[in-house]
Amino acid sequence: MAINSGREEAKSGVLPEEAEALARAVLALPGLELKGLMTMAPKCESADAYRTYFAQTRHLSRQLWQTLGLAGEP
Predict the structure, then answer these.
(1) Model pTM?
(2) Residue 39: what are its φ and ψ, rounded to 5°?
């Protein structure tokens, strides 16, 4: 499931606050299994700036797995 953590209009994916609703929709479909989240950070000036976007998505994935009661770690 793609997360638009940089909130860029030119990129697809859901905004972080829409991730739970999409995850629930995916889980409701037969034959599909949610395995994880992905994101692509916007162009940044430093490695630390990139890490912020990926850390936010990692936090979101852990939160979703706990909220939705999914087995394993994303």
Answers:
(1) 0.84
(2) -150, 160
